[in-house]
Amino acid sequence: MSTPDLAIPFGRDGSSRFLPALTLLMVFLAGLALAAVMDLERALARWDESLTGTLTVELPAATGPTDKSLDAALAVLHAAPGVKSAAPIDSATTMKLIEPWLGTSLSPADLELPRLIDVRLDPGRHTDVAALRTQLGTAVPGATLDDHQLWLDRLARFARSAELTAIAILVLIGGVAVISVSFATRTGLAVHRDTIELLHLMGARDAYVARQFERQALRLALIGGAIGLVLAAAALLALSQATNAAAFLGDSVTLLPALHLRGWNWAVLAVLPVVAGLVAMATARLTVLTTLRRLP
Amino acid sequence: MVRFENVGMRYGTGPEVLRDITLRLDAGSFHFLTGPSGAGKTSLLRLIALAERPSRGLVSLFGEDLSRVTRAALSPLRRKIGIVFQDFRLIPHLSAFDNVALPLRVAGVTENKLRDNVREMLEWVGLADKLDAKPSTLSGGQQQRVAIARAVVARPKLLVADEPTGNVDDAMALRLMRLFEELNKLGTTLIIATHNAALARGFGRPVLHLENGELAAAAATRAAS
Q: Domain limits at B105?
Protein backbone atom coordinates (compact mmCIF):
# COMPACT_ATOMS: atom_id res chain seq x y z
CA MET A 1 0.00 0.00 0.00
CA SER A 2 1.29 3.38 -0.94
CA THR A 3 1.39 6.73 0.75
CA PRO A 4 -1.49 9.19 0.34
CA ASP A 5 0.35 11.51 -2.04
CA LEU A 6 0.95 9.23 -4.98
CA ALA A 7 -2.41 9.52 -6.69
CA ILE A 8 -1.02 11.17 -9.81
CA PRO A 9 1.27 8.83 -11.79
CA PHE A 10 4.04 11.32 -12.51
CA GLY A 11 6.45 8.62 -13.56
CA ARG A 12 4.47 8.21 -16.77
CA ASP A 13 4.94 11.67 -18.25
CA GLY A 14 7.87 13.36 -19.96
CA SER A 15 8.24 16.13 -17.37
CA SER A 16 9.88 13.59 -15.05
CA ARG A 17 12.81 13.39 -17.42
CA PHE A 18 12.75 16.98 -18.65
CA LEU A 19 12.72 18.84 -15.35
CA PRO A 20 15.86 17.35 -13.72
CA ALA A 21 17.87 17.88 -16.92
CA LEU A 22 16.67 21.46 -17.10
CA THR A 23 17.41 22.17 -13.44
CA LEU A 24 20.84 20.58 -13.84
CA LEU A 25 21.69 23.04 -16.60
CA MET A 26 20.20 26.01 -14.74
CA VAL A 27 22.06 25.30 -11.49
CA PHE A 28 25.28 24.68 -13.40
CA LEU A 29 25.07 28.03 -15.20
CA ALA A 30 23.80 29.85 -12.11
CA GLY A 31 26.69 28.37 -10.11
CA LEU A 32 29.25 29.74 -12.57
CA ALA A 33 27.57 33.14 -12.72
CA LEU A 34 27.26 33.38 -8.94
CA ALA A 35 30.87 32.33 -8.45
CA ALA A 36 31.89 35.06 -10.90
CA VAL A 37 29.90 37.66 -8.95
CA MET A 38 31.41 36.60 -5.62
CA ASP A 39 34.97 36.42 -6.96
CA LEU A 40 34.70 39.81 -8.66
CA GLU A 41 33.59 41.30 -5.32
CA ARG A 42 36.65 39.79 -3.69
CA ALA A 43 39.00 40.90 -6.46
CA LEU A 44 37.62 44.42 -6.36
CA ALA A 45 38.06 44.62 -2.59
CA ARG A 46 41.62 43.32 -2.93
CA TRP A 47 42.55 45.85 -5.63
CA ASP A 48 41.01 48.62 -3.60
CA GLU A 49 42.88 47.49 -0.49
CA SER A 50 46.22 47.27 -2.30
CA LEU A 51 45.96 50.59 -4.09
CA THR A 52 44.26 52.71 -1.46
CA GLY A 53 46.80 54.08 0.98
CA THR A 54 49.58 54.41 -1.57
CA LEU A 55 50.68 57.33 -3.68
CA THR A 56 53.29 57.61 -6.39
CA VAL A 57 55.26 60.82 -6.88
CA GLU A 58 56.89 61.35 -10.25
CA LEU A 59 59.73 63.86 -10.57
CA PRO A 60 61.29 65.04 -13.83
CA ALA A 61 64.59 63.39 -14.75
CA ALA A 62 67.59 64.68 -12.77
CA THR A 63 69.32 67.64 -14.39
CA GLY A 64 72.76 66.74 -12.89
CA PRO A 65 74.58 65.49 -9.86
CA THR A 66 73.74 68.66 -7.97
CA ASP A 67 70.00 68.27 -8.52
CA LYS A 68 68.35 68.44 -5.09
CA SER A 69 64.77 68.07 -6.26
CA LEU A 70 64.48 64.49 -4.92
CA ASP A 71 65.56 65.62 -1.45
CA ALA A 72 63.14 68.55 -1.62
CA ALA A 73 60.25 66.29 -2.56
CA LEU A 74 61.13 63.79 0.19
CA ALA A 75 61.31 66.64 2.70
CA VAL A 76 57.78 67.79 1.73
CA LEU A 77 56.48 64.24 1.93
CA HIS A 78 58.07 63.43 5.31
CA ALA A 79 56.65 66.64 6.74
CA ALA A 80 53.10 65.96 5.46
CA PRO A 81 50.60 64.67 8.00
CA GLY A 82 49.47 61.05 7.40
CA VAL A 83 52.49 60.00 5.36
CA LYS A 84 53.92 56.84 6.89
CA SER A 85 56.85 56.39 4.54
CA ALA A 86 58.27 57.81 1.35
CA ALA A 87 60.98 55.83 -0.47
CA PRO A 88 62.54 56.61 -3.84
CA ILE A 89 62.34 53.77 -6.35
CA ASP A 90 65.86 53.08 -7.49
CA SER A 91 66.80 53.14 -11.15
CA ALA A 92 67.30 49.35 -11.29
CA THR A 93 63.67 48.80 -10.22
CA THR A 94 62.47 51.45 -12.67
CA MET A 95 64.40 49.71 -15.47
CA LYS A 96 62.76 46.42 -14.52
CA LEU A 97 59.33 48.05 -14.78
CA ILE A 98 59.98 49.23 -18.34
CA GLU A 99 61.89 46.13 -19.38
CA PRO A 100 58.84 44.42 -20.97
CA TRP A 101 58.55 47.31 -23.44
CA LEU A 102 62.15 48.41 -24.02
CA GLY A 103 64.12 45.22 -23.44
CA THR A 104 67.39 44.82 -21.53
CA SER A 105 69.87 46.42 -23.92
CA LEU A 106 69.50 49.94 -22.50
CA SER A 107 71.07 51.31 -19.33
CA PRO A 108 69.60 54.06 -17.07
CA ALA A 109 72.20 56.47 -18.43
CA ASP A 110 70.77 56.10 -21.95
CA LEU A 111 67.36 57.25 -20.87
CA GLU A 112 66.00 60.35 -19.24
CA LEU A 113 63.94 58.44 -16.75
CA PRO A 114 61.63 60.25 -14.34
CA ARG A 115 62.33 59.50 -10.72
CA LEU A 116 59.60 57.79 -8.73
CA ILE A 117 58.83 57.90 -5.01
CA ASP A 118 56.65 55.24 -3.44
CA VAL A 119 54.57 56.84 -0.69
CA ARG A 120 52.68 54.84 1.98
CA LEU A 121 49.94 56.53 3.97
CA ASP A 122 48.91 55.88 7.53
CA PRO A 123 45.39 54.43 7.25
CA GLY A 124 44.51 55.84 10.68
CA ARG A 125 45.15 59.44 9.66
CA HIS A 126 43.74 61.75 7.05
CA THR A 127 46.00 62.98 4.29
CA ASP A 128 45.05 66.03 2.27
CA VAL A 129 46.21 64.77 -1.14
CA ALA A 130 45.28 68.01 -2.96
CA ALA A 131 47.33 70.15 -0.54
CA LEU A 132 50.24 67.73 -0.79
CA ARG A 133 50.09 67.94 -4.59
CA THR A 134 50.28 71.75 -4.42
CA GLN A 135 53.19 71.69 -1.96
CA LEU A 136 55.12 69.24 -4.14
CA GLY A 137 54.49 71.35 -7.23
CA THR A 138 55.86 74.39 -5.42
CA ALA A 139 58.93 72.57 -4.05
CA VAL A 140 59.72 70.71 -7.27
CA PRO A 141 58.32 72.26 -10.45
CA GLY A 142 56.99 69.52 -12.76
CA ALA A 143 56.43 67.03 -9.95
CA THR A 144 53.19 65.04 -10.18
CA LEU A 145 51.32 63.06 -7.57
CA ASP A 146 49.31 60.00 -8.61
CA ASP A 147 46.82 58.62 -6.10
CA HIS A 148 45.76 55.81 -8.54
CA GLN A 149 42.17 57.02 -8.37
CA LEU A 150 41.71 57.02 -12.14
CA TRP A 151 43.02 53.46 -12.43
CA LEU A 152 40.91 52.35 -9.48
CA ASP A 153 37.78 54.00 -10.90
CA ARG A 154 38.23 52.31 -14.27
CA LEU A 155 38.88 48.98 -12.62
CA ALA A 156 35.85 49.39 -10.40
CA ARG A 157 33.68 50.30 -13.41
CA PHE A 158 34.87 47.25 -15.30
CA ALA A 159 34.32 44.97 -12.31
CA ARG A 160 30.85 46.41 -11.65
CA SER A 161 29.88 45.93 -15.32
CA ALA A 162 31.04 42.33 -15.22
CA GLU A 163 29.20 41.85 -11.94
CA LEU A 164 25.99 43.33 -13.33
CA THR A 165 26.28 41.09 -16.38
CA ALA A 166 26.65 38.05 -14.14
CA ILE A 167 23.64 39.16 -12.05
CA ALA A 168 21.62 39.69 -15.24
CA ILE A 169 22.56 36.15 -16.31
CA LEU A 170 21.40 34.86 -12.92
CA VAL A 171 18.07 36.68 -13.26
CA LEU A 172 17.65 35.35 -16.80
CA ILE A 173 18.38 31.82 -15.61
CA GLY A 174 15.77 32.25 -12.88
CA GLY A 175 13.24 33.54 -15.41
CA VAL A 176 13.89 30.70 -17.82
CA ALA A 177 13.58 28.23 -14.93
CA VAL A 178 10.19 29.64 -13.94
CA ILE A 179 8.89 29.53 -17.52
CA SER A 180 10.21 26.00 -18.06
CA VAL A 181 8.74 24.65 -14.83
CA SER A 182 5.46 26.32 -15.69
CA PHE A 183 5.39 24.60 -19.10
CA ALA A 184 6.40 21.26 -17.59
CA THR A 185 3.62 21.59 -15.01
CA ARG A 186 1.08 22.47 -17.68
CA THR A 187 2.19 19.39 -19.63
CA GLY A 188 1.76 17.33 -16.47
CA LEU A 189 -1.70 18.78 -15.93
CA ALA A 190 -2.69 17.91 -19.49
CA VAL A 191 -1.24 14.39 -19.29
CA HIS A 192 -2.96 13.65 -15.98
CA ARG A 193 -6.19 15.48 -16.78
CA ASP A 194 -8.40 12.43 -16.10
CA THR A 195 -6.83 11.71 -12.73
CA ILE A 196 -7.02 15.36 -11.75
CA GLU A 197 -10.69 15.53 -12.70
CA LEU A 198 -11.29 12.38 -10.69
CA LEU A 199 -9.66 13.92 -7.62
CA HIS A 200 -11.58 17.14 -8.22
CA LEU A 201 -14.89 15.25 -8.35
CA MET A 202 -13.99 13.39 -5.17
CA GLY A 203 -13.91 16.77 -3.47
CA ALA A 204 -10.17 17.34 -3.51
CA ARG A 205 -9.36 20.99 -2.99
CA ASP A 206 -7.09 22.66 -5.54
CA ALA A 207 -4.36 22.86 -2.89
CA TYR A 208 -4.42 19.04 -2.56
CA VAL A 209 -3.72 18.59 -6.28
CA ALA A 210 -1.21 21.46 -6.26
CA ARG A 211 0.65 19.83 -3.36
CA GLN A 212 1.24 16.72 -5.44
CA PHE A 213 2.72 18.76 -8.29
CA GLU A 214 4.76 20.88 -5.84
CA ARG A 215 6.37 17.85 -4.25
CA GLN A 216 7.11 16.30 -7.60
CA ALA A 217 8.68 19.55 -8.85
CA LEU A 218 10.72 19.91 -5.64
CA ARG A 219 11.98 16.33 -5.82
CA LEU A 220 12.98 16.53 -9.49
CA ALA A 221 14.55 19.99 -9.14
CA LEU A 222 16.60 18.88 -6.13
CA ILE A 223 17.90 15.85 -8.02
CA GLY A 224 18.80 17.90 -11.10
CA GLY A 225 20.10 20.77 -8.97
CA ALA A 226 22.39 18.52 -6.93
CA ILE A 227 23.97 17.08 -10.08
CA GLY A 228 24.26 20.58 -11.57
CA LEU A 229 25.99 21.80 -8.40
CA VAL A 230 28.51 18.96 -8.49
CA LEU A 231 29.30 19.74 -12.14
CA ALA A 232 29.56 23.48 -11.42
CA ALA A 233 31.88 22.80 -8.46
CA ALA A 234 34.06 20.59 -10.64
CA ALA A 235 34.20 23.26 -13.35
CA LEU A 236 35.04 25.98 -10.80
CA LEU A 237 37.78 23.89 -9.22
CA ALA A 238 39.27 23.21 -12.63
CA LEU A 239 39.06 26.92 -13.49
CA SER A 240 40.59 27.83 -10.14
CA GLN A 241 43.52 25.49 -10.76
CA ALA A 242 43.99 26.81 -14.27
CA THR A 243 43.99 30.49 -13.19
CA ASN A 244 46.26 29.77 -10.21
CA ALA A 245 48.71 28.02 -12.48
CA ALA A 246 48.62 30.99 -14.86
CA ALA A 247 49.15 33.44 -11.99
CA PHE A 248 52.34 31.65 -10.91
CA LEU A 249 53.99 31.35 -14.29
CA GLY A 250 57.36 32.81 -13.27
CA ASP A 251 57.47 36.60 -13.28
CA SER A 252 55.08 37.05 -16.13
CA VAL A 253 52.15 39.37 -15.58
CA THR A 254 48.67 37.86 -16.04
CA LEU A 255 45.56 39.85 -16.76
CA LEU A 256 43.33 37.03 -15.54
CA PRO A 257 43.04 37.13 -11.75
CA ALA A 258 43.28 33.81 -9.96
CA LEU A 259 39.84 32.40 -9.11
CA HIS A 260 39.71 31.89 -5.41
CA LEU A 261 36.43 30.96 -3.71
CA ARG A 262 36.30 31.02 0.05
CA GLY A 263 34.35 28.77 2.40
CA TRP A 264 31.26 30.95 2.54
CA ASN A 265 31.27 31.24 -1.26
CA TRP A 266 30.98 27.46 -1.51
CA ALA A 267 28.23 27.52 1.13
CA VAL A 268 26.26 30.03 -0.97
CA LEU A 269 26.72 27.83 -4.05
CA ALA A 270 25.54 24.80 -2.09
CA VAL A 271 22.22 26.55 -1.48
CA LEU A 272 21.55 26.81 -5.24
CA PRO A 273 19.80 23.41 -5.64
CA VAL A 274 17.56 24.27 -2.69
CA VAL A 275 16.72 27.64 -4.26
CA ALA A 276 16.06 25.87 -7.59
CA GLY A 277 13.81 23.38 -5.76
CA LEU A 278 11.87 26.13 -4.02
CA VAL A 279 11.47 28.11 -7.27
CA ALA A 280 10.23 24.97 -9.04
CA MET A 281 7.88 24.20 -6.15
CA ALA A 282 6.39 27.70 -6.05
CA THR A 283 6.05 27.85 -9.83
CA ALA A 284 4.35 24.46 -9.96
CA ARG A 285 1.93 25.48 -7.22
CA LEU A 286 1.04 28.75 -8.89
CA THR A 287 0.61 27.09 -12.30
CA VAL A 288 -1.63 24.34 -10.92
CA LEU A 289 -3.78 26.71 -8.89
CA THR A 290 -4.19 29.06 -11.85
CA THR A 291 -5.11 26.21 -14.19
CA LEU A 292 -7.48 24.47 -11.79
CA ARG A 293 -9.37 27.69 -11.21
CA ARG A 294 -10.86 27.12 -14.65
CA LEU A 295 -12.54 23.91 -13.47
CA PRO A 296 -16.11 24.34 -12.15
CA MET B 1 -31.83 16.08 -2.42
CA VAL B 2 -31.54 17.10 -6.11
CA ARG B 3 -33.77 19.65 -7.80
CA PHE B 4 -33.48 20.95 -11.38
CA GLU B 5 -35.76 23.64 -12.77
CA ASN B 6 -35.63 24.55 -16.46
CA VAL B 7 -31.96 23.71 -16.61
CA GLY B 8 -30.02 24.13 -19.82
CA MET B 9 -26.42 23.30 -20.45
CA ARG B 10 -23.94 23.82 -23.25
CA TYR B 11 -20.22 23.14 -23.59
CA GLY B 12 -18.43 26.39 -24.33
CA THR B 13 -20.22 28.23 -27.10
CA GLY B 14 -21.68 25.06 -28.64
CA PRO B 15 -25.37 24.20 -28.89
CA GLU B 16 -27.36 23.26 -25.79
CA VAL B 17 -26.87 19.59 -24.97
CA LEU B 18 -29.52 19.73 -22.25
CA ARG B 19 -32.69 21.77 -22.52
CA ASP B 20 -35.37 22.66 -19.99
CA ILE B 21 -34.55 19.85 -17.59
CA THR B 22 -36.85 19.83 -14.61
CA LEU B 23 -36.50 16.94 -12.18
CA ARG B 24 -36.45 16.09 -8.53
CA LEU B 25 -34.66 13.23 -6.78
CA ASP B 26 -35.85 12.81 -3.21
CA ALA B 27 -33.57 11.57 -0.45
CA GLY B 28 -33.39 7.77 -0.49
CA SER B 29 -34.82 7.48 -4.02
CA PHE B 30 -33.47 5.22 -6.76
CA HIS B 31 -33.85 6.38 -10.36
CA PHE B 32 -32.69 5.06 -13.67
CA LEU B 33 -31.75 7.45 -16.44
CA THR B 34 -32.23 6.00 -19.90
CA GLY B 35 -31.89 7.26 -23.43
CA PRO B 36 -29.99 6.56 -26.63
CA SER B 37 -26.34 7.43 -27.08
CA GLY B 38 -25.90 11.18 -27.41
CA ALA B 39 -29.17 11.96 -25.64
CA GLY B 40 -27.32 13.83 -22.87
CA LYS B 41 -27.26 11.23 -20.08
CA THR B 42 -23.59 11.79 -19.24
CA SER B 43 -24.02 15.57 -19.36
CA LEU B 44 -26.96 15.39 -16.96
CA LEU B 45 -25.02 13.13 -14.59
CA ARG B 46 -22.02 15.49 -14.78
CA LEU B 47 -24.31 18.36 -13.79
CA ILE B 48 -25.64 16.37 -10.84
CA ALA B 49 -22.08 15.33 -9.87
CA LEU B 50 -20.95 18.99 -9.93
CA ALA B 51 -18.53 18.32 -12.77
CA GLU B 52 -20.23 21.04 -14.83
CA ARG B 53 -22.16 24.22 -14.20
CA PRO B 54 -25.54 24.82 -15.89
CA SER B 55 -25.77 27.58 -18.48
CA ARG B 56 -29.26 28.45 -17.28
CA GLY B 57 -31.95 27.36 -14.85
CA LEU B 58 -31.86 26.44 -11.18
CA VAL B 59 -29.88 23.53 -9.76
CA SER B 60 -30.25 22.76 -6.10
CA LEU B 61 -28.25 20.04 -4.33
CA PHE B 62 -28.60 19.04 -0.68
CA GLY B 63 -30.81 22.10 -0.25
CA GLU B 64 -28.19 24.50 -1.63
CA ASP B 65 -28.89 26.68 -4.66
CA LEU B 66 -25.71 26.18 -6.68
CA SER B 67 -25.84 29.65 -8.18
CA ARG B 68 -25.17 30.98 -4.68
CA VAL B 69 -22.41 28.51 -3.77
CA THR B 70 -18.82 29.67 -4.15
CA ARG B 71 -16.31 27.52 -5.99
CA ALA B 72 -14.45 26.74 -2.76
CA ALA B 73 -17.67 25.58 -1.09
CA LEU B 74 -18.27 23.01 -3.86
CA SER B 75 -15.53 20.67 -2.55
CA PRO B 76 -17.44 19.69 0.63
CA LEU B 77 -20.58 19.19 -1.47
CA ARG B 78 -18.70 16.92 -3.88
CA ARG B 79 -17.62 14.74 -0.96
CA LYS B 80 -21.29 13.90 -0.41
CA ILE B 81 -21.47 12.48 -3.93
CA GLY B 82 -20.08 9.16 -5.10
CA ILE B 83 -19.48 8.58 -8.81
CA VAL B 84 -19.18 5.34 -10.77
CA PHE B 85 -17.92 5.61 -14.33
CA GLN B 86 -18.49 3.23 -17.21
CA ASP B 87 -14.74 3.03 -17.81
CA PHE B 88 -14.09 2.57 -14.05
CA ARG B 89 -11.47 5.39 -13.97
CA LEU B 90 -9.26 3.46 -11.57
CA ILE B 91 -5.75 4.84 -11.12
CA PRO B 92 -3.56 2.21 -12.76
CA HIS B 93 -0.47 2.47 -10.56
CA LEU B 94 -2.45 2.22 -7.31
CA SER B 95 -3.59 -1.02 -5.71
CA ALA B 96 -7.27 -1.80 -5.19
CA PHE B 97 -6.84 -0.73 -1.56
CA ASP B 98 -5.29 2.62 -2.49
CA ASN B 99 -7.86 3.30 -5.18
CA VAL B 100 -10.65 2.75 -2.69
CA ALA B 101 -8.84 4.76 -0.01
CA LEU B 102 -8.43 7.78 -2.27
CA PRO B 103 -11.69 9.66 -1.42
CA LEU B 104 -10.91 9.27 2.28
CA ARG B 105 -7.36 10.52 1.83
CA VAL B 106 -8.63 13.45 -0.20
CA ALA B 107 -10.97 14.24 2.70
CA GLY B 108 -8.03 14.15 5.10
CA VAL B 109 -8.93 10.94 6.95
CA THR B 110 -5.90 9.48 8.74
CA GLU B 111 -4.37 6.18 7.63
CA ASN B 112 -5.35 4.43 10.87
CA LYS B 113 -8.96 5.43 10.52
CA LEU B 114 -9.35 4.61 6.86
CA ARG B 115 -7.74 1.15 6.89
CA ASP B 116 -10.68 -0.81 8.33
CA ASN B 117 -13.16 1.18 6.32
CA VAL B 118 -11.45 0.38 3.03
CA ARG B 119 -11.06 -3.31 3.87
CA GLU B 120 -14.74 -3.47 4.80
CA MET B 121 -15.75 -1.91 1.47
CA LEU B 122 -13.61 -4.30 -0.56
CA GLU B 123 -15.05 -7.18 1.44
CA TRP B 124 -18.56 -5.91 0.71
CA VAL B 125 -17.92 -5.99 -3.04
CA GLY B 126 -16.35 -9.46 -2.72
CA LEU B 127 -12.74 -8.45 -3.26
CA ALA B 128 -11.25 -8.92 0.20
CA ASP B 129 -8.50 -11.05 -1.33
CA LYS B 130 -7.54 -8.39 -3.92
CA LEU B 131 -6.36 -5.60 -1.63
CA ASP B 132 -2.94 -5.31 -3.24
CA ALA B 133 -4.00 -6.10 -6.79
CA LYS B 134 -3.34 -3.49 -9.46
CA PRO B 135 -6.32 -2.69 -11.75
CA SER B 136 -4.58 -4.23 -14.76
CA THR B 137 -4.62 -7.63 -13.05
CA LEU B 138 -8.38 -7.50 -12.36
CA SER B 139 -11.24 -8.47 -14.67
CA GLY B 140 -13.74 -5.83 -15.89
CA GLY B 141 -16.29 -6.88 -13.28
CA GLN B 142 -13.71 -6.79 -10.51
CA GLN B 143 -12.52 -3.34 -11.61
CA GLN B 144 -16.07 -2.04 -11.58
CA ARG B 145 -16.59 -3.44 -8.07
CA VAL B 146 -13.42 -1.64 -6.92
CA ALA B 147 -14.83 1.51 -8.52
CA ILE B 148 -18.13 1.03 -6.67
CA ALA B 149 -16.27 0.48 -3.38
CA ARG B 150 -14.35 3.70 -4.06
CA ALA B 151 -17.55 5.59 -4.83
CA VAL B 152 -19.23 4.57 -1.57
CA VAL B 153 -16.32 4.35 0.87
CA ALA B 154 -16.87 7.92 2.08
CA ARG B 155 -20.57 7.12 2.70
CA PRO B 156 -21.96 9.55 0.10
CA LYS B 157 -25.54 10.72 0.34
CA LEU B 158 -25.92 10.59 -3.42
CA LEU B 159 -24.48 8.02 -5.84
CA VAL B 160 -24.27 8.82 -9.54
CA ALA B 161 -23.42 5.94 -11.87
CA ASP B 162 -22.84 6.36 -15.60
CA GLU B 163 -23.41 3.09 -17.45
CA PRO B 164 -21.88 1.06 -14.60
CA THR B 165 -22.81 -2.22 -16.27
CA GLY B 166 -21.73 -1.17 -19.76
CA ASN B 167 -18.44 -3.05 -19.73
CA VAL B 168 -19.43 -6.22 -17.85
CA ASP B 169 -21.37 -9.35 -18.75
CA ASP B 170 -25.04 -9.85 -17.82
CA ALA B 171 -24.35 -11.93 -14.71
CA MET B 172 -21.94 -9.33 -13.38
CA ALA B 173 -24.36 -6.53 -14.33
CA LEU B 174 -27.01 -8.15 -12.18
CA ARG B 175 -24.56 -8.58 -9.32
CA LEU B 176 -23.58 -4.91 -9.50
CA MET B 177 -27.22 -3.84 -9.55
CA ARG B 178 -27.81 -5.86 -6.38
CA LEU B 179 -24.98 -3.92 -4.76
CA PHE B 180 -26.66 -0.67 -5.76
CA GLU B 181 -29.96 -1.86 -4.29
CA GLU B 182 -28.23 -2.70 -1.03
CA LEU B 183 -26.75 0.79 -0.94
CA ASN B 184 -30.14 2.33 -1.57
CA LYS B 185 -31.59 0.31 1.30
CA LEU B 186 -28.93 1.86 3.51
CA GLY B 187 -30.29 5.29 2.59
CA THR B 188 -28.13 6.39 -0.34
CA THR B 189 -29.93 8.24 -3.12
CA LEU B 190 -29.08 6.72 -6.50
CA ILE B 191 -29.32 7.71 -10.12
CA ILE B 192 -27.98 5.24 -12.64
CA ALA B 193 -27.66 5.97 -16.34
CA THR B 194 -28.04 3.05 -18.69
CA HIS B 195 -28.87 2.56 -22.33
CA ASN B 196 -30.27 -0.86 -21.34
CA ALA B 197 -33.98 -0.02 -20.90
CA ALA B 198 -34.83 -3.66 -20.17
CA LEU B 199 -32.39 -3.74 -17.26
CA ALA B 200 -33.93 -0.53 -15.87
CA ARG B 201 -37.50 -1.83 -16.23
CA GLY B 202 -36.55 -5.11 -14.55
CA PHE B 203 -35.91 -3.36 -11.25
CA GLY B 204 -39.24 -1.55 -11.07
CA ARG B 205 -37.68 1.79 -10.22
CA PRO B 206 -38.68 5.18 -11.65
CA VAL B 207 -37.09 5.84 -15.02
CA LEU B 208 -36.12 9.24 -16.42
CA HIS B 209 -35.85 9.08 -20.18
CA LEU B 210 -33.75 11.55 -22.16
CA GLU B 211 -34.14 12.24 -25.87
CA ASN B 212 -32.09 14.91 -27.66
CA GLY B 213 -31.21 16.68 -24.43
CA GLU B 214 -34.77 16.80 -23.09
CA LEU B 215 -36.53 14.64 -20.54
CA ALA B 216 -39.29 12.53 -22.11
CA ALA B 217 -42.12 14.28 -20.26
CA ALA B 218 -40.91 17.72 -21.38
CA ALA B 219 -40.42 16.47 -24.94
CA ALA B 220 -43.92 14.98 -24.95
CA THR B 221 -45.44 18.24 -23.67
CA ARG B 222 -43.64 20.21 -26.37
CA ALA B 223 -44.83 17.79 -29.07
CA ALA B 224 -48.46 18.10 -27.88
CA SER B 225 -48.49 21.90 -27.82
A: 91-155
Q: Which has more pLDDT, A146 or B104? A: B104
Sequence-ordered strand ranges (E) for chain A: 54-59, 83-89, 115-121, 144-146
Chain centroid offset of residue B215 CA: 18
Domain A55-146 grouped into CATH 3.40.50: no
- With both helix axes pointing from N to C terminus, report the angle between A263-270 and A15-51 in degrees, rounded to the nearest 10: 160
Distance from CA of A13 to the nearest CA of B (A): 13
CA distance A197 to A31: 40
Count the Cβ atoms, other than its own, within 10 Å of residue B225: 5
Q: Do A2 and B95 touch (CB under 8 A)?
A: yes
**Alpha carbon B37 to chain centroid distance?**
17
Q: Per-residue pLDDT tens for A149-168?
A: 777 778 778 888 888 888 89
Query: What ipTM was assigned to the predicted interfaces of this complex?
Result: 0.89
Contact call for B102 and A7, based on CB within 8 A: yes
Whole-number Å distance between alpha carbons of A184 and A171:
20
Q: List, in order, residues 6 or more apart from B150 with CB less than 8 Å away.
A: B82, B90, B99, B100, B102, B103, B121
| Residue A222: φ, ψ to 5° | -65, -40
The whole-angstrom separation of Cα B195 and Cα A47 is 85
- Residue B78: which of A4, A201, A208 has the nearest Cβ? A201
Q: How many domains does chain B fold into?
A: 1
Q: How far apart are CA B140 and CA A188, in angstroms?
A: 28
> Has residue B9 been placed in a domain?
no
The dihedral over CA atoms of A36, A37, A43, A44, expressed in degrees to the nearest 10, equals: 150
B77 burial level (CB within 10 Å; 0-12, 13-18, 19+): middle
Alpha carbon distance A266, A237 (integer Å): 11
User: pLDDT (tens digit, 9 = 90+) per residue, B106-132?
Assistant: 998 999 989 999 999 899 888 999 999
Instruction: Return the number of other C-beta atoms located less than 10 Å from residue A213's C-beta.
Output: 28
What residues does each domain of chain A span?
10-49+152-292, 55-146
DSSP state of A271: T
Residues of chain B found within 8 Å of residue A1, distances taken between Cβ atoms: 95, 97-98, 101, 131-132
B12-22 confidence digits (pLDDT tens): 889 999 999 99
Question: C-alpha distances in angstroms, A147 versus A87, A118, A119, A127, A206?
Answer: 15, 11, 10, 11, 65
Q: Does A289 touch chain B (CB under 8 A)?
A: no
CA distance B74 to chain A (A): 8
Give the SS3 label for residue B65. strand
